[in-house]
Structures are given as structure tokens and as C-alpha cells.
Amino acid sequence: MELDQNLIDLKISEAKQGSQSAYNYLLNSHWNLVYSFQLKRTQDDFKAEEITIQTFSKAFNQLSTYDNKYKFSTWLVTISKNLHIDLLRKETRAEKRLHKEFKLNSVVDKNPTAEDSLITEQNLSELLAHIKKLKPHYQEVINLRYFQEMSYKEMANSLDEPLSNVKVKLLRARRLLSDLIEKTP
């Protein structure tokens, strides 16, 4: 189904002005395109979903840079493709690093030291403090996704909300949480 470019341009204009419904429209009307594109590339539901969420997050953060001489869907797919390439590069570097470390330390003590445990505990308590600064509905979606490890579908059922709303809420919650963490000295 081909989307009306004039309507897309209107919704982009409205989104630039802060219209929540315009963001929802853009997300809902293009989600399947970007997700299908990533599913073909990654062959992994979880990775495809995560990259799709990152794609919309990045696109919405940089909406002011969108040039309407090009199709919005093409712009989104390009962002998505670049995010996937970045992910592959990171994974390759991490694998090489792990391989090198494994060669250097064939026997590694996997038990965390007391210092490691303390640092982990402090980081978790800082993260929880930041999460508590969010509005309750954002706290809830973060809790369901990252602490209870629910899928998006399970979250939608638990919250009795449409899947697209859950995805948008989680996207916003992550963005707000990231902003809070970055502002912390």
C-alpha cells in the first residue's frame, strides 16, 4: 500500500511542532516497512525489533534534518540500514576483542570481586533512582521490558494497550531515561 506523500509531509510538519498524534501516525504507518526490512537482514525477531525502535528514535530526534525532496520511507530505511551496519561492526569488534582476550587469558576467574559487585550495585541503584524520576507509566514499561523481560506482545497484553502504543511509550521512556542519565554529573 502506497502512502500519500502529501499526508506524510503534513504529519512530519505537525511532528516537528510536537504533535503526539503525528509521531504516532508516522510510527504506525512505517513500522512494518522498517521492521520487515530489518527482519530480512538480521533473520532475528529481537534484533529486527530493537533496530526498528532505534531507527524511529533516531529519525524522530533528527526529524528537522529530513529533506522532503526524498520519500520519508527511503530516509527511514537508510537510517535503519546504517544502524544495522553499525551494529555489525560493533559485534565484529567485540568478537575480535573477546577472541584476543580468550587467547591471552585461557583461564579466567568469572567470579566478580567484591569491588566489581559494589560497582554493579551502585550502578543499579543509580539507574533505579533515575527510573523513579520518570512518570509512572514510563516506569511501568521499563520495568516490564527490562526487569521482567517481557516481549512487546506480552507488555501490550499486560497493559491492555495496542502494541504500537507500547512501543512508542517504551521508545519515549528510553529517550527520557537517557536524557536524565546524560544530565547527571
UniProtKB/TrEMBL annotation:
A molecular function (GO) term: sigma factor activity
InterPro entries: RNA_pol_sigma-70-like, RNA_pol_sigma-70_dom, RNA_pol_sigma70_r2, RNA_pol_sigma70_r4_t2, RNA_pol_sigma_r2, RNA_pol_sigma_r3/r4-like, WH-like_DNA-bd_sf
GO biological process terms held by the UniProt record: DNA-templated transcription initiation
UniProt KW Transcription keyword: yes
Keyword Transport among record annotations: no
Domain RNA polymerase sigma-70 region: 27-93
Span of domain RNA polymerase sigma factor 70 region 4 type: 126-177
UniProt keyword annotations, A-Z: Sigma factor, Transcription, Transcription regulation
Family: Belongs to the sigma-70 factor family. ECF subfamily.
Name recorded for this polypeptide: RNA polymerase sigma-70 factor (ECF subfamily)
Organism field: Leeuwenhoekiella aequorea
